[in-house]
Amino acid sequence: MALASPPRMCSMTTARLPRALLGDWGLIRRPNSSSLWLMPVGLLNDELKMAAEEESKSGGQEGTEGHQESKKQKPHPLEICKLRIIDRLFLLKHCTARFANTTKRYPLTRMIPFRWRPPHGPMTTREMKNIVWREDMPSFVLKHMRKVVVKELKETCLNVNNSDARHCVWTTVELRENSPASLAYGLQNMKDLDNMECGGILIMGSMSLKQNIEDAVKDITADDLPARGVSGPDIPSGSRLSAGQCSPEIGESRGTQSESMGSAFPSSSTSNSAAERPSCSISSIFPHFTTLPQRGSKVPVFDLSALLTDSEREELRKHHPRFREAALFFLPKETITTGAMLALWKLKGFFMYDEELLHQDSDPLR
């Protein structure tokens, strides 16, 4: 399904890839500021939608009904401007090292398409000079990719009917211990399913054991992230955000906006503390792919004990008893389930193709 999507060009690498494998990026404006933040808006759909609703409510109290209609009819031109960038950790690390510099921003303006630039594009010369790239972009993107995966997996539980045993979307795989040999044994005992070569394996890990592969990236917020130059704020729910004119500082009321700004942008006095820098291990004891004994075809292995944090896996277990199993076979059947599979693939691909390069780095997310 992803490979069948139309090819599009990555704005960073100029490589042409299937549309489903590229992330949507756009410009987000902070209120009362000339800065424009280049952000992965495709991962922030819920936050942006909530922010737009909050903005429309506040506009309804302050403006007239006709003014509200005109605002809906004439969105800011930057709202429809999108870039497409491949979701790869190594690429984001390279971009962060190049762009997150307050004194030399010209490389970032070079990637802005000509159709956006003045005098014919929606951007002004001043806006071109005030584009900001988050210094914590790799960890920020990873955090929100994980949120998308958790959300999609939850939705599969609400919309999937497993009454037909031959068409089960979820099947338990016996996993007596966390090892590839135990996984192979569990797959041998699985029943044959229709089109099971289109599925994948989710390793949830044991509930009684702590995360044994990755405590790689805890839920990183801008409050505890060290910064060398400009550090962008986090975007939790309840924010006042809209694409083209919105605030990366979310969850703040207008009265406390200045206070939260201080916590969102760490001071230089705390930026060099080594204790604040998160450790990272992105390896897994399981292979990226394994062979199904029933079909002889390979399917992906999504080791969620490495891809997700402990708290996120615990959230899934509390949401549905299915996720309390050590391993599951996931076979997408409907649109809602294919969305979950695509989200898993994108999260896995964020690390998997650059492992050798990332293992040479003492801190892969910086």
Automatic annotation (TrEMBL):
Region of interest: Disordered: 52-74, 224-276
Ranges of Low complexity composition bias in the record: 263-276
Source species: Elaphomyces granulatus
Superkingdom assignment: Eukaryota
Organism taxonomic ancestry: Eukaryota, Fungi, Dikarya, Ascomycota, Pezizomycotina
Protein name per UniProt: Uncharacterized protein
Basic and acidic residues compositional bias, start-end: 64-74
